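can u pls check wat happens w/ AFP
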Amino acid sequence: MLILRRYLESCGCEPDLVELIRLIARQMETIRKAFLENQTFERTLNPSGELQTQMDTWADEHLIKVVGNSGLVRELASEEQPDIIRFDNSRTDYCMVMDPLDGSSLISTNLAVGTIVGIYEGGGVLQPGSKLRAAFYTLFGPLTVLVVSVGKGVQSFAWDQENEHYLLLRTCISIPEGKQYGTGGLKMEWPPEHIKVIDYFDQNGFKIRYSGSFVADCHQLLTYGGIYTYPGSTKNPEGKLRLLFEAIPLGFIITQAGGRITDGKRNILEIVPEKQHQTTPLYIGSKGIIEKIEEIYSSS
Ligand code: AFP
């Protein structure tokens, strides 16, 4: 059975990149154990103005410490931190973006959440997604799963607790043209283009799947196809989801699986981020459906 380290080496990844991905991947057991004692909300808000859970801050502090001590990352942007962190001890030029725990409002319901990571090689964290060297996410479901792309397709691995390594689960994942969608936002605040998109889905036999965890909702796209969307709203035209921490890494992975990501008009992977906590409206999933959505937007 292929394990994560051998897969990354077989792709020609530099040893430091292999070490960095494996280092973060190994923290998932520690993070999983911390759920039991960190079930509630903090009284603090994150830089996007959302209530933090205990696990948000726990996972954030833990990963910052591990990454900072590793000497493998020069620059780090975290969804939970107001500013970009720079590590002077780094022997590499890797710049990392992360959502330490995505979907954290679901912790109290025991639904699936996970960690999202994107890695650039030099150039800082404010770069378009098309420049990513690697992206991966983990998902805590019945299995702890890790889905990774180093620009050579998408593979998923599952944590084998007994042998303490990640075993290959699915290789060369290709996203099908499914017929399901999940949409965020309040219907009363949807822009007219989005209403047309949803009407199109409803008239064409799509079914609804939405959990409230972006990483979990995107993960199911790799099996069933379809799309996840969080549109801009009349109150927040720039949407809710974070460009750096959510849209770019997942967009990179879904694109590597043959899917696409758009804000309705542009490929999100081509957007040059202007600030760390920038948000974007987004549609992510099967290629054909995204093309249809862009058609609806351009004719509106
Ligand atoms: P965080 O848990 O990292 O704050 O992310 C939550 C999230 O950005 C994304 O994971 C969900 O898809 C989305 O918010 C859910 O938003 P709603 O609660 O407004 O549906």
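The chain has a mean pLDDT of 97.
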